Amino acid sequence: MGDDDRIALDRTDEAILKALQDDGRISTADLARAVSLSPSSTADRVRRLVDAGVITGYTATVSATALGYTITAFVRLAYPSGNYKPLHSLLDVTPEVVEAHHVTGDDCFILKVLARSMSDLERLTGRLATLGAVTTNVVYSSPLTRRRLEPG
User: Fold this and answer.
1) Are 73 and 90 in contact, with CB atoms under 8 Å apart?
2) For residue 42, what are the CA distances in angstroms to 30, 45, 51?
3) In the prediction, which pLDDT does 1 show?
4) Beta-carbon count within 10 A of 121 CB
5) What is the three-class DSSP state of 52?
6) Which residue from 107, 102, 114, 119 is spatially nearest to 73, judged by alpha carbons?
7) Per-residue model confidence (pLDDT) at position 3
8) CA dihedral angle for residue 13, residue 19, residue 25, residue 27, rounded to 10 degrees
9) For residue 132, is it left (φ>0), alpha (ψ between -120 and 50) or beta?
10) If I label 89, which of 28, 37, 61, 99 is the partner at 20 to 30 A Cα–Cα?
11) Which residues contact 124 (CB under 8 A, 6 or more apart)?
12) Which domains does the chain have, with CATH numbers?
């Protein structure tokens, strides 16, 4: 959705979005009760929000630490070329890179990387450094990992 593609949301749509962001597994019946609609009307509204691209999917939030990824880092990559195919190819085979953002400024990309150890992080940043200069920031803690989106 572009800036001009914003759809009009009423208070019920906003309540549905809030409830689904709080609990993506909420049943249609419970969601309907929460927003004071019938289950069929609620299902129709959710379907409309999906069709309009407002709701883009449903997913489980998984603990990286529970899976053995004890280190989170942000790696800034100064990519010297306009040919992004090598970067995309590396991202395709490096699942430890969980986010990649093309940004303005001295660096071209900011990557969120999960690692099992410092030596694992060194291996990962070494692979990324084959594409350009990297600067790595290790995360001490994350006081805010996720925030519910509110309509603007």
Assistant:
1) no
2) 10, 5, 14
3) 45
4) 21
5) coil
6) 114
7) 54
8) -70
9) left
10) 61
11) 75, 94, 96, 97, 113, 115
12) 7-51 (1.10.10.10), 65-138 (3.30.70.920)
Q: How far apart are CA 23 and CA 76, in angstroms?
A: 33
Q: pTM of the prediction?
A: 0.84
Report mean pLDDT in 10-residue bins for the chain, 152 residues: 72 96 96 97 97 94 96 96 94 98 96 98 98 97 92 82
DSSP one-letter code for 138: E
C-beta atoms surrounding 111 within 10 Å: 24
Helix (H, G, I), strand (E, B) or coil at 76: strand
* R_g (Cα) of the chain, nearest Å: 20
Residue showing tokens 């800034």: 76
Tokens found for residue 72: 């989170």
pLDDT of 5: 67
Residues in the chain: 152
The amino acid present at 32, given as its one-letter code, is A
- Which residue from 57, 148, 64, 147 is spatially nearest to 113, judged by alpha carbons? 64
